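User: Predict the structure for this protein chain, please.
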Amino acid sequence: MIAAKTTSTNEIVAGGCPLKNAARKITLPCPIEEVAEIRLRINRRAAAVTLDGRIIPCSPPFTHQDITDCFLELCRNSVHSFAKEIAEGYITLPGGFRVGFCGTAVVHGGKLDSLRDISSLNIRIPREVRGCGEELCRRAFSEGLCSLIVCGRPLSGKTTVLRDLARILGAAHRTAVVDSRGELAAVQGGVPALDVGENTDILNGYSKAEGIMCALRSLSPEVIICDEIGDDAEPVRQCMSCGVKLIVSVHAGSIEELKRRPSVSGLLPFIDKAALLGERGRLMEVTELMS
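Assistant: Here is the predicted structure, written as structure tokens:
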């Protein structure tokens, strides 16, 4: 059951996400702790997506001007300053909030250059759940550190679990986090807003491949952690040849689906184990990948 309490968007604004233009219209149907995303669309009601996947309307319809005002506020009224992020489809805000955009693609030379006519915004709410990675640590690293893929469907808590793994491992091991989207550590002015461990170094804004190689060259890590990796087989091979362990996340609904994904097939020969997450980060399975 949804909690009877309703939550003002002002609580989100106070938490670091600039939603002042939307706050007057949105009333969340449950505590912010139960919300994974808030979705805004032109001529439709805002919708709160809860951690268990329910989609609940939480406002009157947003007009075209409402969405434009929200978009400009998220860009701090300087769209040009965020051109690269907008072209990639999202902006990461202080505190680890990530806002995705939908609109009309502007293509130059066959390459996506920007977006225009923004039609919807998806605001992902970051959360820090201390202890959520402890069972995975016990099961995956019972015989020492190893390379690990954490997989699960969208909203299964992969980023939250990776963050807690960084916190746990960073208490005793030289740990490097490659935070391409600013969600794992939420670095502000060089300081992480979220706890990723006492002995953890953060490469903020690097691509996966560049961050892994930079960590190998300069940080002498025992383990490197990064979120949502693709087919970056060469950096992974470099990790393995240097004796460094890699912990990454991948979208997949099962271990079998993970093994079938072409984008990660080049990584699997270098990874020791895979873990599958269910709803809210619940650990479903840990499997040996290397024979």
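The chain has two domains: 7-124, 134-288.
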